[in-house]
Amino acid sequence: MTGSDRTRQRRKSTALAVILGASVVGLCALCPISNGLLLRPLLAAFDSRYVPGQIEPMPFDRDLWRAGNGRHRVGMARYLSDKKLLDGKSRAELVEMLGEPDVDQPRDEGVRWLLGFYAKGLFDETLWLELTLGEKGTASGAIVSVSWDDPRRR
């Protein structure tokens, strides 16, 4: 094989790879099923708001919490809820510690902080740190909850 034949073969291989790549991206952009099964989980691997499967509890660190990495926030929220470290805190103490809540509902509907997302099938599950502020204005019942309610779509 001569040098020009090798160059021609390399160009054909490169063109084929570009066409295949563009086809996969195009298919993912046009088809929700392939987007959910191929492209979104791949992108989620590089987005710090997404969490991979089970996360172990980890002690609270205010700087890591404020940085917003989903894996850290879920781990810290699990630790806080498992150890019941938020019970008895006032709303002001919670805001000082965790920042303003993402959802603040009156009475028993509770207060929620967005932790991150878990890519699952065609849709993302949203993970929250959720608790109730009682009549005396103190927190109780902190849990890490999962819902299909995606605040990015509001």
Explained architecture:
By secondary structure, the chain is of the alpha+beta class. It has a domain at 49-153: Beta-lactamase Inhibitory Protein, Chain:B, domain 1. Helix content is 44%, strand content 21%. The chain has helices at 3-30, 32-44, 62-67, 70-82, 91-98, and strands at residues 103-104, 111-120, 123-133, 139-147. It has a four-stranded antiparallel sheet with strand order 1-2-3-4. Helix 1 (3-30) crosses helix 2 (32-44). The longest helix has 28 residues, at 3-30. The N and C termini lie far apart (60 Å). The model has no long low-confidence stretch (mean pLDDT 82).
Please outline the helices and strands.
Layout: H1 3-30, H2 32-44, H3 62-67, H4 70-82, H5 91-98, E1 103-104, E2 111-120, E3 123-133, E4 139-147
Antiparallel strand pairs: 1-2, 2-3, 3-4
Helix pairs in contact: 1-2
